[in-house]
Design brief:
Elements: H1 6-16, H2 28-45, E1 55-61, E2 68-71, E3 85-92, E4 95-102, H3 104-108, E5 116-117, E6 121-125, E7 131-136, E8 138-139, E9 144-151, H4 170-182, H5 192-209, E10 228-229, E11 234-235
Parallel strand pairs: 4-6, 5-8
Antiparallel strand pairs: 1-9, 2-7, 3-4, 3-9, 6-7, 10-11
Helix pairs in contact: 1-2, 1-4, 2-4, 4-5
Length: about 240
């Protein structure tokens, strides 16, 4: 089984726009430029939920009376800094409590932020280089563990010799989309067939990564109507 590297992706992308032939060799500067373009493209894909094949799962034992924690390399939650937190919950005594992931405006509207109790909301400030997670109410003890699901990382490449380890289907999408990205640098336009395959292959990834939505109904809407029972002189 052959091994695909970042350099292979760059060469195949340039071949799509006829910059090089199958037997040609790229200069080191051309390879470096291609690697930069590849990483920039993948960096933008990290912002698209449906371009990511999985969510990243992290957990943190919370400290009583502490509501805010940094997240990122070297932070309180020492992991890759999330682009976005998809959902979260806290576990207490083997029971899980879902958290509402709220934005800045909703967090600002909380009048008394020092309230302690069972956390029910989470606000994520995606600051750099460390993000900041705040749970509300502040945990009343250290018996809570926070679990978060965030946008996973699409790997980047430090060198052209780095091995490509992405999920099936990504190589085709990367090669053809990278060809479109690189074409203007060589005063070329990507062939229509390359554009078509680039769109189709990325659309296939997004279709595969789409999560099934389970319809839910407010339980209050399912409650039976209140009926007065004359035999018991009460409501049922």
């Amino acid at each position: 089984m052959s091994t695909t590297t970042a350099g292979d992706l760059v060469r195949k992308a340039l071949g799509k726009i006829l910059v090089i032939g199958t037997q040609d060799t790229l200069s080191s500067s051309e390879m470096d430029d291609g690697l930069d373009a590849l990483n920039l493209m993948l960096d933008s894909w990290r912002l698209e939920r449906l371009s990511i094949w999985s969510l990243k799962h992290d957990s943190k034992a919370l400290t009583g009376s502490v509501g805010t924690y940094t997240i990122g390399p070297g932070g309180d939650i020492d992991t890759v800094r999330p682009t976005k937190i998809e959902d979260a919950f806290v576990r207490y005594s083997n029971a899980d409590y879902m958290l509402d992931v709220i934005g800045q405006v909703q967090f600002d509207q909380i009048p008394y932020k020092n309230l302690t109790g069972v956390p029910r909301k989470l606000f994520y400030d995606a600051a750099m280089p460390l993000g900041s997670i705040t749970v509300f109410p502040i945990p009343l003890s250290s018996a809570f563990t926070l679990y978060i699901n965030s946008y996973g990382e699409i790997e980047s490449f430090a060198n052209t010799s780095d091995v490509f380890n992405l999920a099936p289907g990504y190589a085709r999408a990367i090669i053809n989309n990278l060809a479109i990205e690189l074409a203007p640098d060589y005063n070329k336009s990507a062939p229509a067939e390359v554009v078509k395959v680039a769109m189709e292959s990325k659309r296939n990834l997004k279709r595969l990564n789409t999560q099934d939505v389970i319809a839910q109904v407010d339980k209050a809407l399912l409650r039976p109507s209140v009926v007065y029972d004359i035999t018991s002189d009460g409501y049922r």
